[in-house]
Amino acid sequence: MPRYEVVGIGRETGRKRVRIYDVENQEAAISAAASDGTVIEMGKIRLLPDLPPTEAQVEYAKSLNIKITKDLTKKSISQLITKAEDEDWPTKDQITKAKRLKIKIPPEITGDDLDELICDEEYRREDLKYSKEIDAIVIPRKKHKYKKIFWVVIILIILYLIAKSKT
């Protein structure tokens, strides 16, 4: 929303005042000033430039993998952040982790889908360990979908039973 600076005189106090209004247009700024009790001086209403984005906005936008340009305003970066959150774009951290694991990243992948690929790849790379104390194969606990875990556990149990029957 545009910001207008209005310079005028307080109706009751007679003192000079400067007010800033976030309103749709110049007429709305005049109306807002009048309701504040400000008598506007001639030619003393001006449209202010848009505010630059805050440091926090820029850092958060970078973490969402949004390209930062010099012409971004506080309002425009806020809109881009909202869009990125709604569309579930992969974050910079997710992309870095995927590249480290040498995962090919499809261009239209969502953040949730990339998380799943990362989990699958990490799980694939882990070594399953045998525990002598409990006489069983220990499966590292990871955040996976139940269906995949079910089949992995079934296969491991079968392999364990075959190995145990041979001894």
Structure description:
The strands form two sheets. This protein has a three-stranded antiparallel β-sheet with strand order 2-1-3, covered by helices on one side. It has a two-stranded antiparallel ribbon with strand order 4-5. The protein starts with a strand and ends with a helix. It has helices spanning 26-35, 55-63, 74-87, 92-100, 111-125, 146-166, and strands at 3-10, 16-22, 38-48, 129-131, 136-138. It has six helices and five strands, in the order ββαβααααββα. It is α+β, with helices and mostly antiparallel strands. It has four domains: 3-48; 51-87; 90-125; 126-166, no CATH class. It is rod-shaped and about 100 Å long. α2 packs parallel to α3. The longest helix has 21 residues, at 146-166.
What's this model, at a glance?
Helices cover 47% and strands 19% of the residues.
Which features would summarize this protein structure in a list?
6 helices; 3-stranded antiparallel beta sheet; 47% helix; two-stranded antiparallel ribbon; 167 residues; 4 domains; alpha+beta
Radius of gyration, CA atoms, in whole angstroms: 30 Å
User: Biggest β-sheet, characterized?
Assistant: 3 strands, antiparallel
Strand-pairing-aware structural class = alpha+beta
Distance between the termini: 77 Å
**Can you count the beta strands?**
5
* Overall tally of structural domains: 4
Helix content: 40-55%
Mean pLDDT: 84
Strand content: 15-25%
Unreliable stretches: none
- The rough form would be described as rod-shaped
Q: N-to-C SSE series?
A: EEHEHHHHEEH
Total helices: the number is 6
